Amino acid sequence: MGIRNSSVILALVLALACSVAVAYDPLDPNGNITIKWDVISWTPDGYVAMVTMNNYQMYRQIMEPGWTVGWSWAKKEVIWSIVGAQATEQGDCSKFKGGIPHCCKRTPAVVDLLPGVPYNQQIANCCKAGVVAAYGQDPAASVSAFQVSVGLAGTTNKTVKLPKNFTLMGPGPGYTCGPARVVPSTVYFTPDHRRKTQALMTWTVTCTYSQQLASRYPSCCVSFSSFYNDTIVPCPRCACGCGHGRHGGGGPRHGGRHPDAAGEGCIMGDSKRALSAGVNTPRKDGAPLLQCTSHMCPIRVHWHVKLNYRDYWRAKIAITNFNYRMNYTQWTLVAQHPNLDNVTEVFSFQYKPLLPYGTISKFFFFFISAVEARRGTPSLMIIPSNGDESFSDDTGMFYGLKFYNDLLMEAGPFGNVQSEVLMRKDSRTFTFSQGWAFPRKIYFNGDECKMPPPDSYPYLPNSAPVATPRSRMIAASTMSLLALLLLVP
Q1: How many CB atoms neighbour CB 243 within 10 A?
Q2: Burial class of residue 119 in the structure, from the number of CB atoms within 10 Å of its CB (0-12 exposed, 13-18 middle, 19+ buried)
Q3: What is the pTM of this model?
Q4: Burial of 351 from C-beta contacts in 10 A (0-12 / 13-18 / 19+)
Q5: pLDDT in tens, 176-199
Q6: What is the pLDDT of residues 107-157, one digit of tens each?
Q7: In terms of Cα–Cα distance, which of 79, 82, 115 is closest to 96?
Q8: Residue 452 in contact with residue 233, Cβ under 8 Å?
Q9: How far is 323 from 63, CA to CA, in rounded Å?
Q10: Do 141 and 132 contact (CB within 8 A), yes or no?
Q11: Coil/strand/helix, residue 86
Q12: Omega of the bond leading into 171 within 30 degrees of 0 (cis)
């Protein structure tokens, strides 16, 4: 009975973990996009609301062509006007004889305005073509906003019906939005900070990202090399999908295959077509045009172990774009490596440590209490490790220097950025053996990249893989048997 209960509890835990893992990022546990509606005034038939989109994701931004936010009206509301954005379709407004609303659709879709629109159509934090920076990279640019006037709606807190079925494209799929929830009204300060005002009503919508929903295939891959081995470990073959379409994977968000796009194949980097006019012109459906490679990824990240000093060692990071139709503005690269807790200097890139668990430096682990298991009621417990065994955070974010290399150009001679990282050695952990000098995981623009298999990592010269515990046991048993045979007269 105890074993059965243990199995049931284990199954429940695994089911819970799988259910939240789709949209949960362990490196950015609080990362989300929050859409806030602040009702700032009532109108004869509705209200005026300030809609603010805050990107609280540390290393995932929204690139061109920008965000599209949609919802369903709870009643028969219409949008009389929008400042700082526009609805993509007006819908059927034929029943209105006087003023015509901006949008009469039951399910409107709103996009940001382009930069340079007239000032009377702008508000603060609008008109950036829908581009929203990651919070960890540029907090001031991680906000987007517009003002909407809603008609045929409630005119009090009790009669207003919240919109529902929110959707967010950023710019492709991947985001899932929860229901709107009424929260305490937003408080505003006057410019002199001597008076406070507040919204008449506030509700928020939280949207989380899932790479699995964005695309079936990765959007980037990783390759390795080192100074101590001539072997160059390439990206895994078909890392971003081969045969599922006539061009690479990754989804529209990263210039990957669009499900409705007509395939155009790939082109060789040295072909005449790569130099022809119009090859870099983006398509409306987001379909990419990739350079022909064995991995067929839009992005490749190469990690090279470059130099070894007495107290330091140096690694080179190179990011290459293989998509002729997309450049990456304000790109981000996240790496997991044990030595990133002791970075001395980063050349040509900006660097910021990521602390997903704040000041907590102790590992926690789950186990089933043996005492409770004996009673037939196993319990799941969380126990901290020994206080003396503290572990530093091993994750960091790299991004480009503003106006220097924060723009990764399209495929071609200028479609790459690179930097070097100088790290101080820790005598207790540092080694070049067993691939320790290479990162555990790499993320580009928030999506995890396909890594090479561990057994292909460059090894030190004249070294062999460390024997496994099983092989050591077999060797020990063999020696014991030989010793017994020698003792037999």
Answers
A1: 7
A2: exposed
A3: 0.79
A4: middle
A5: 999 999 999 999 998 888 999 999
A6: 999 999 999 999 999 999 999 999 999 999 999 999 999 999 999 999 999
A7: 79
A8: yes
A9: 15
A10: yes
A11: strand
A12: yes
